[in-house]
Design a protein that fits this description.
By secondary structure, this protein is of the alpha+beta class. The protein contains five helices and eleven strands, in the order ααβαβαβββββββββα. Strands 1, 2, 3, 4, 5, 6, 7, 8, 9, 10 and 11 form an eleven-stranded antiparallel sheet that branches.
Length: 339
Amino acid sequence: MRNSFGATWSASALVLAAILAVTTIPADGQGGAAVPEGWTPPMTPWGDPDLQGVWTNGTLTPLQRPADLAGQELLNDEELALRNVTTRLRDDGPVQGPVGFYNDFWLEQGDLSRRTALIVDPRDGRLPPVTAAERELQAARRDSYTDSHRPHGTRFDSWDDFNMLDRCITRGMPGLMMPGFYNHNYLILQTPDHVAIQVEMIHDARIIPLDGRPGLAPGMRQWLGSSRGRWEGDTLVVETTGFTDKVRRRTGYFPSVVFGGDARLHVVERFTRVAADTIDYRFTVTDPTVWTAPWTASIPMTTLDGSLFEYACHEGNYAVPNALGGTRAEERAGILDTP
């Protein structure tokens, strides 16, 4: 975690306001930001816009527009100041999960932007409805975290009761590029024919070719899909397909994160450096199995002094065996029935 995070966002407030002023979003929601007039992005020695460095995207701005702000795209000064206080998690907040949850000491939330939602398309700032097939899938899926008909509401019978985040495998796409509670930091490196993005949270790494090579064969599926990048003016455009369907389970721990889709998922990302300390980052998600329409989110990334820390999370860590052992102990004590 970085204690300088809030200061970084405060210092970038004017830049973010400028982004809102120059950003254009066409009807399909897939446009990128315009570079502010009079500012020239730094270039690599080979002539591409330079996106390199350590960046963070933490923010209190919710993924979806709150109901009390329906129809309102931007906050005024008074609303921004008030919600920057009232939307923060506090030490006396409700306990989440079977073994409690982090208090505010551990969180790195950032500040609100003036936007009332990260979603910029649809225009109402809300996710489009999921398909009937997706509703049925999620309703039928057993999840030990929400199995409320059982005593205590929680039991763990198998490693498969845990989602990919709990198992330290991945947050999937677009989840790994979305902010949550902490450690949402990114190292971007470039060569003439590749861009590499190291993600601190869950230690995902992305290698994105820029040389025009074709994507993977249709039958080849990967956790993070097959990404191919290209430059459109000052904007890096990355298209990713070829996902597995293993990152489908929803979680309530990160309400502003969407944890992937199925094999039909198609993600288009746009990275535009609009200031020395700011990248305008946005992505469009299309998955006709899951969503009834495409949707687009815009999440500015700001510079972060220092380097990434190791996120020492792995599937063999303590949480999974301890949770399974706890359920077995409750069964022996007669607190839980044996399945």
